[in-house]
Amino acid sequence: MSDCPCGSRRAYAACCGPLHAGTPAPDAQALMRSRYSAYVMGDLDYLRASWHPTTRPADLDLGDTRATRWLGLEVRRHTVIDADHATVEFVARYKVGGAAAVRLHELSRFVREDGRWYYVDGTFPAK
Questions:
Q1: Predicted confidence (pLDDT) per residue in 36-49, tens digit
Q2: Where are the domains of the chain?
Q3: Where is the YchJ-like middle NTF2-like domain positioned along the sequence (predicted)?
């Protein structure tokens, strides 16, 4: 069994794999981790499906996925606002080709509709 890209230290088949196959995420943090794994794996279909339709971009380009190396995910905070709203603060690191590593620090908003969590949008906290 291979480790899940999200850094959970669980096997992909027992972590993000079922979500990528259509199982609803149990909470916003699980959805956020599964979205990170989808970026690592270049799974555009899952990224689109897990993005709320009101904020989903018309076109999603992951760039050169073969040249992108994902270095890790740190979930800093998962805040449940109410039964259908939550935020997740995270830092994801990656490199493209020989360039310096990029640090993406985001506070993401999530909403649950009809039993499914969706990514809505995010802000970038000041450094």
A1: 999 999 999 999 99
A2: 12-123
A3: 28-122
- CATH tag, 12-123: 3.10.450.50
CA distance linking residue 82 with residue 95, whole number of Å = 36
Report yes or no on whether pTM surpasses 0.85. yes
What pLDDT, in 10s, does the model give residues 48-82?
Answer: 999 999 999 999 988 888 889 999 999 999 999 99
DSSP for the chain reads -PBPTTSSSSBGGGTHHHHHTTPPPSSHHHHHHHHHHHHHHT-HHHHHHTB-TTT--S------TTTEEEEEEEEEEEEEEETTEEEEEEEEEEEETTSPPEEEEEEEEEEEETTEEEEEEEE----
Q: What is the mean pLDDT of the chain?
A: 95
Q: Are strands 68-82 and 102-113 parallel, antiparallel or unpaired?
A: unpaired
